[in-house]
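Our platform keeps sequence and structure together, in a single record for each protein. Because each token names a local backbone shape, the row as a whole describes the fold. One such record is reproduced below, unchanged from the form in which we store it:
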Amino acid sequence: MIIGLTGGIGSGKTAAANRFAAAHGIHVVDADQKSRVVVEPGRPALAHIVDRFGEAMLLDDGTLNRAALRETVFAAPEQRQWLEQLLHPLIRDEIITDLHSATSPYALLVSPLLVESGQNSLTSRVIVVDVPETMQLARTVQRDAVPEAQVRAIMQAQAQREERLRHAHDVLTNDSDLAALHAQVDALHARYMQLLERP
């Protein structure tokens, strides 16, 4: 069984995924990490990005300047579409390979764009980490030390809260503290184990 875990920026996806992994030994595949792998130096995707947007997309060590790329693509929707068409199939291949290596009772696919990228087609259930948008904004601005306008642009590009919740089989409400989130994760894990035991 593959379970998708999604939520907007700053919702607490990583905190939830870490609990599944640390407390219950669940194999976690992080789409964000895969998105970094596909643009590593020497990978074709990085060369395509530099061809399109120029050398400013590279840091001094030859790795991708993620901040410069983010600024460029979130300012122009057609550039973001081009980038997504380049990267999504590559990321999907990396994800599938990793999911197939899982040995835990079920695997967790963590992706901020689970619904938007169609990655939810790989999953049998979807968990949404839900949080009020004001909290999302405040957490992300504080965590990433970025301007509020940039966070709002990223939030606009992600599925809206209602849209995400429409795809949810399970919801983790993360508007309290870490202990409250952990308790919800533990309850969900117990439920999934029961589901797996059914013939």
Q: What stands out?
A: The chain has nine helices and five strands.
